[in-house]
Amino acid sequence: MESDAELDPYTFGSTQTCFGCGPHNPVGWRLRFRREGDEVVTRFTPPKGQEGPPGVFHGGLQATLADEVAGWVVVGLLGRMGITTSMAVRLVRPMSIGQEIEARGRITKRAGRFVVVSVALRQGGKTGCMARVTYMLPDREKAEQYLGGTVPEGWERLFD
Length: 160
Description:
The chain is an alpha+beta fold and 160 residues long. Helix content is 18%, strand content 33%. A seven-stranded antiparallel beta sheet has the order 1-2-3-5-6-7-4, with helices on one face. It is globular, with a radius of gyration of 15 Å.
């Protein structure tokens, strides 16, 4: 895998509808990710309508952004699909609507089938949110149990 590279937004196919990264989800964020050395990065500007308090990016949506970038850390650095098993989020300071957020994640621990990813969301050079997300790396059989059916065509390589 290249050290610095854009990650393929069609990794999960052109019709997948992930809220965070689905390329054609009409109500999703359509995030794009880039591998930079041992980290994965995305940038996102939260729009009006995603507030908690007026003008402040909703804390639950911050957690969603952190989980999304952490998932792409697993894809971008390991070439695997992970299933979120736990997440600890710390909202450090309010982040504003309409201002770009840089979300950056990296692997901090790997033990067997589990990977821990640390994420920082920064706006205006200051950390607004930190998260620690644990993923289980399922094999194909376990993935099909979680998905309730066969692994979508093209996803097979993510469970090797």
